[in-house]
Model the fold of this input.
Amino acid sequence: MPGKPGGPVAPDTTVPVTGWGRTAPTAARLIRPRTYQEAADAVRNCGARGGIARGLGRAYGDAAQNAGGAVLDMTALDRIHAIDADGGTVLCDAGVSLHRLMEVLLPLGWFVPVTPGTRQVTVGGAIGADIHGKNHHVSGSFSRHVLSFELLTADGHVRTVSRGTPLFDATVGGMGLTGVILTATVRLLPVETSYMSVDTERAADLDDLLTRLTETDHRYRYSVAWIDLLARGPATGRAVLTRGDHAPLEALGPRTRAGRAPLAFRPRSLPPAPDLVPGGLLGRTTVGLFNELWYRKAPRASTGRLQRVSAFFHPLDGVPHWNRVYGRAGFVQYQFAVGHGQEDTLRRIVARISERRCPSFLAVLKRFGDADPGWLSFPVPGWTLALDIPAALPGLAALLDELDEEVAAAGGRVYLAKDSRLRPELLTAMYPRLAEFRALRAELDPHGVFVSDLSRRLGL
Amino acid sequence: MKDAFGMPQSLLVLGGTSEIALATARRLIARRTRTVWLAGRPSPALEQAAAHLRTLGPDVHTLPFDALDPESHEAVLGKVFAEGDVDVVLLAFGVLGDQATDEREPVNAVRVAQTNYTGAVSAGLVSARALQAQGHGSLVVLSSVAGERARRSNFIYGSSKAGLDAFAQGLGDALHGTGVHVMVVRPGFVRSRMTEGLEEAPLATTPEAVATAIETGLRRRSEMVWVPGALRVVMSALRHAPRSVFRRLPI
Ligand SMILES: Cc1cc2nc3c(=O)[nH]c(=O)nc-3n(C[C@H](O)[C@H](O)[C@H](O)COP(=O)(O)OP(=O)(O)OC[C@H]3O[C@@H](n4cnc5c(N)ncnc54)[C@H](O)[C@@H]3O)c2cc1C
Ligand SMILES: NC(=O)c1ccc[n+]([C@@H]2O[C@H](COP(=O)([O-])OP(=O)(O)OC[C@H]3O[C@@H](n4cnc5c(N)ncnc54)[C@H](OP(=O)(O)O)[C@@H]3O)[C@@H](O)[C@H]2O)c1
Done:
């Protein structure tokens, strides 16, 4: 089921399901509960091959798929129940998207505490993957801002789960495998405007980039670097850094369009990407050219530029279904993290990807701050790199396996929300708390009601 | 589960001593395969094949399977699927027969047809149903270029492969959208036990080359794979050759 699961699907239809990368389709009974009771019934009756919750399907791999079993599309449970406009919290269904939250909250002067590179994710997906944003070095991952949630567990009961409990820490980042999140209470960030004040600078190579990030990241709430992985030689790892914060009211100027409606939320959208693109379109030359133009186009240094929230955080959301440009074979996103002090590993990996000339559009490098307690939560203090690569690229599988070895040897990990191909043997090294996670699952869900293709593939 | 590159974690081979199948198994073990089932007629060769694969790391099981006994297929294959998901079923059994003898001994000819065609219809349907129930998996069927257009020199084998090929394509269409993928593989002349002592045909290839093509086909989720790839063009020319010409070609 590439694209939106929200269509008018009859109850209990068996349909092929994939993640955002459109690899490895498997068939599942798609159930779209409209009430908590329907969700509980679906969990009780999901059958021998179990069930898994699904949000907007933005996980790249097979996390929200369940071959031969049930997939609970949670997007019909999309009510915002209560907004505390003074204290800055929201209580909403897990199927509410971050897009919807922004639409509702921005005019009230509040913003989501953490947003990924797309607004099209649900609160349930944000908790299930314990997502991080450009503000991780300051604000941590999504779970840091979750006060509590209601979890539908394997026995069909609903539990209220609060911070600081084992079930909380197993569920955040737990990829839907502890149960179905029904509602959540999330703390918000106050903002004066819906604009960002953005500083941009170019880094000539990877070392230059790491230095800049290390020395000045603390001055910004949001920070990310886009690396050109097709650049080689002395330019290896050249990048454009964009960093910023929510613009204060006085930055807009009273007589501008922005100043007259400082909290307006107006994302722009282009027509969807076509479904079938000739395979050659994303060759090295095209991608190389794109990366080159994009690097040249970036100002050497600019400060205080105003950008809309959508342009700053979610540039790709302007092109619906952009994932289709990779054609039938789909694509994989490789994202790993290694700790501080493991810069050599990072350098080696960047050099190897550049040498292999993977036709990868811009890769994203970010400095992570302190980790949060989720047992399978991905971020560790250090560095994370994420890149998209067409799955049809010959030799890619072996290359990524080699990179995994480097990452694991450095005590790092790959991100489960993006994964579609990790060798299961490496998982325990990457996630040292996996044993606790398995033990909790064995107790909470002894019959294995919650299963996904990801959990089958990796033996989670 | 298969990964994003179509690489299976578990593999069931029907025709467990087939050289092409074993070359494929070795290749898949080098990637992600950790469980292998070799189904075949019980023999020391079958156990040896399993022992060899075990040295490469995976859990390898053997089980008795006879293509000529379709009544048993449901029970035999059912046991494998009851143990866990099977990501790829490789339907590799087949016999070449001996055209000259088989023309004189219709009972022999029927055995070729029953092994290659009806045996595969049965095992294919049983596997397909199990794959469909688990909601994922690939059925890889070793057909042959010999089925593309039956030749004077081996039309008994050729016709059985033609039937198998048509069956597998139809099955693939029937399973479209069910999460199950059917891939028809059409090798040309492969240097294996089956062709030992025969005169090589042009574009002859090896079990390893077929294995590589299968790996690539799984990654691309191909529905039809020719080995070597050039055969697709050659065969499309041959298919359209007039009957009078085709009959006299030295192939
Ligand atoms: C363009 C793009 C950019 C991205 N950028 C980032 C980024 O910067 N940082 C980042 O961290 N991630 C990023 N992601 C990944 C994305 O944020 C996560 O995969 C997120 O989990 C997707 O949410 P979803 O609602 O689509 O969930 P799905 O993809 O449908 O599901 C993801 C996981 O959450 C579980 N889940 C969903 N809903 C529930 C529920 N109600 N109860 C229990 N479990 C549930 C599922 O079982 C599954 O394991 C990006 C993805 C895209 C496509
Ligand atoms: N070699 C080629 O040139 C070529 C070309 C195109 C297609 N193919 C096809 O590719 C497949 C594999 O061939 P191969 O080259 O690997 O030859 P192979 O080594 O001779 O393998 C044939 C397999 O079929 C098995 N088999 C025969 N009759 C059986 C039965 N009644 N029940 C169960 N298993 C039976 C054999 O098992 P036993 O050990 O019990 O005999 C053997 O495992 C065959 O379908 C063949 O037609 C081969």
User: Anything to note?
Assistant: The first helix of chain A runs from residue 36 to 44. The pocket of flavin-adenine dinucleotide (ligand 1) is lined by residues A 20, 52-59, 63-64, 74, 94, 116-118, 121-122, 124-125, 128-129, 131-133, 175-176, 180-181, 316, 417 (CB under 6 Å). Chain A is about 25% helix and 25% strand. Residues 76-191 of chain A form a domain with the Uridine Diphospho-n-acetylenolpyruvylglucosamine Reductase; domain 3 fold (CATH 3.30.465.10).
